[in-house]
Amino acid sequence: MPIIDVKTEITGNVWKIEAEVGQSLSEDDPIMILESMKMEIPVASPEGGTLVEILTAEGEVVTEGTIVARIEV
Q: Which residues contact 69 (CB under 8 A, 6 or more apart)?
């Protein structure tokens, strides 16, 4: 099964992780919430599949283009 990397679109702090490894996700389901300049920006699943890995933790700073999760489709 192919693995898809989920990347951030902005630089920010990982405010809250919403999904758990092993969880089945639909397209656009939130995986985590980033905080940047007092705004909350969701990182959503690009496709439906199973969340197989989270590569960051709450409180970490991520930059634009960072791979933060992987989904098996």
A: 5, 6, 19, 31, 32, 43, 51, 53, 54, 55, 56
Per the structure, the complete domain to which residue 46 belongs is given by: 3-72
CATH of the domain at 23: 2.40.50.100
Quick: pLDDT tens for 8-56.
999 999 999 999 999 999 999 999 999 999 999 999 999 999 999 999 9
Q: Report yes or no on whether pTM surpasses 0.70.
A: yes
C-beta separation of 68 from 4 below 8 A: no
Distance CA 22, CA 57 (A): 16
Q: How many domains does the chain have?
A: 1
Q: What is the pLDDT of residues 15-28, one digit of tens each?
A: 999 999 999 999 99
